[in-house]
Design goal:
By secondary structure, this protein is of the alpha+beta class. The chain contains four helices and twelve strands; from the N terminus they run ααβββββαβαββββββ. The longest helix has 14 residues.
């Protein structure tokens, strides 16, 4: 399934979920190949190294477990951003090969947990694929979605999936904010040049 097919499938699914809200797919962008006289795309290692100079916060995106699942879903994500004030929207990017994203898409809701200073090991635990990431992790339920709200987070944002767009090898997930909160005394965890700060 191509990029457009993956996004269209997600949009079709979300449209079938009661109460998921409006979900609109953007028209497919015009794509073209790089001509022989144009500069070749940058090398992936250089791209990652240079963009690593942009310091980011670190989040864990969580969703409640479905009835047939033993535990909630969650993954570490540093590609998160606020998007709109009116209506209140946020977005995160997730790899198209993510095993966790389909579970979040099925739930139709998620909670963004902005990790606090000292939660680097928690981030590493949620970056691992295939394990039960919630073993020994304290959390409670976010008030609207019921998604896990991790203890010790600097802030949390409870959301419903609003739209899904394609972006190269990632999907851009837009969330409509339904509730949020913070711990004003907790400093955030930062990621810069491949290290937590």
């Amino acid at each position: 399934m191509g990029h457009a097919g993956a996004a269209a499938a997600a949009v079709r699914y979300l449209r079938s979920v009661p109460g998921a809200g409006p979900v609109e797919a953007l028209p497919r962008p015009e794509l073209r190949c790089v001509r022989a006289d144009e500069r070749a795309p940058v090398e992936q290692g250089e791209f990652r190294r240079v963009l690593g100079n942009f310091a980011t916060g670190v989040t864990v995106i969580t969703a409640p477990a479905a009835e047939d699942e033993p535990s909630p879903a969650g993954f570490a994500c540093q590609s998160f951003s606020s998007l709109s004030l009116d209506p209140p929207l946020v977005c995160f990017m997730v790899g198209r090969t993510s095993a966790t994203w389909p579970r979040i898409a099925r739930a139709g809701v998620f909670c963004v947990n902005v990790l606090g200073a000292g939660q680097g090991e928690l981030c590493r635990a949620f970056a691992v694929s295939g394990a039960d990431k919630f073993t020994g992790v304290p959390y409670d339920a976010a008030p609207v979605s019921g998604s896990p709200r991790l203890t010790g987070a600097a802030a949390w944002i409870d959301c419903a999936v609003h739209a899904v767009h394609t972006g190269g090898d990632h999907l851009i997930v837009v969330g409509r904010v339904t509730a949020l909160g913070e711990d004003p005394d907790r400093a955030p965890l930062l990621f810069h040049r491949g290290r937590f700060r």
